[in-house]
Amino acid sequence: MFTGIIEATGTLTELTLKQGDLSVRVTSTNLDMDDVQLGDSIATNGVCLTVVEKFADGFRADVSNETLKLTRFGEYRVGQKVNLEKALQPISRLGGHLVSGHVDGIAEVVAVQPNARATDYWLKAPAQLMKYIPYKGSVAIDGISLTVNDLDGDKFKLTIVPHTAQETTIVDFKVGTLLNLEVDQIARYLERLIQGEPVATQQSTLTSSLLAKAGFIK
After folding, report:
1. Quick one: CA torsion of 93, 99, 101, 102, rounded to 10 degrees?
2. Where is the Lumazine-binding domain positioned along the sequence (predicted)?
3. Could you tell me if residue 66 is inside a domain?
């Protein structure tokens, strides 16, 4: 489990095809590896990766075909800059929101607009994921916990302050950039619980009437 508060940035220094999937090496000069053990999880651009080899300046992890299918890892190249966050400890401050590192899909930056000292980014998400993205709700974009400040059809707006941009890869975002998107997991669990057993054989059918019946809205 993660918070979406990025600890450091790093670089993909090796990408090796290995028996049908991918082995990656991540190098970072400012991620503290002292307390990292083999088998620990590190969110890498929002993707939960397991450390299979540890170095003083980074780690190696395996990326499965399922992860390659749902994330941007299949298109990354050596030199790609990534956001890094070690798994949450019970004593850590929860500064962002609960992030699982299980990416739901890909979002695309469609507009970048100045907003005083901040910058507004409009992202387009897969239509089937927009129901999980509420106004003033949380999303993880390349592993960064961010607040949704506006909605427009299949698009949502993020307002990024200078500090967040400087400490993450957001500084490199531009129109056309594709990003890993994880929606708030509470919304997904809520849908499953309300629908109950029929959801096992049906596609998502969460409606206002179901929410009202469950007592969540009037």
Report:
1. 160
2. 1-97, 98-194
3. yes
Residue 73 lies in a domain: yes
Token duo for residue 136: 């003033």
pLDDT digits over 52-75, tens only?
999 999 999 999 998 999 999 999
Alpha-helix runs per DSSP H in the chain: 65-70, 162-167, 185-195, 208-213
With a CB cutoff of 8 Å and minimum separation 6, the contacts of 31 are 7, 8, 10, 58, 84, 86
Dihedral of CA 207/213/216/218: which sign? positive
Burial class (CB in 10 A: 0-12, 13-18, 19+), 175: exposed
Q: For all residues of the chain together, what is the average pLDDT?
A: 88
Q: Do both 56 and 129 map to the same domain?
A: no
Q: Which domain holds residue 49?
A: 8-86
